[in-house]
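Sample log: HNH endonuclease.
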Amino acid sequence: MADPLLDRAARLTLAIARDGDDCAWCRRPFTGQVTPTTDHLVPRVKGGPSWLENEVAACRRCNRARGHLSPSDWLAECERRGWHPDTDRVTRVLTALAGAITVRGGQRRARPYLEGQLRRLRRRAA
Ligand SMILES: [Zn+2]
């Protein structure tokens, strides 16, 4: 499991190595024009930790446009815009976050939010 104390740049590099070199939401490849940023799946305002298991690489445009929307609401909005967001990636990372919380403990505020998101993602997939 990744060290939760890795700095943000190191986590972003690892997120890209883990998930691929494109935005989780709009799927544009990261190039000179499209800069990767760290996007918290469970937003920090909802108690989401700055762990690799709560982060995906997103382009600056998507990160800003998403704001504090939940992953499931933002996935729906991406689809409404005609994009093909990586729902499997989002589900995989949120599932890893649930596992990391089980191991490390804490994150009492993030837990119910995370459980609600995983339920909604399972429903979407069904
Ligand atoms: Zn994007």
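Observation: The longest helix spans residues 87-104.
Observation: Residues 23, 25-26, 28, 58-59, 61-62 surround zinc ion (CB under 6 Å).
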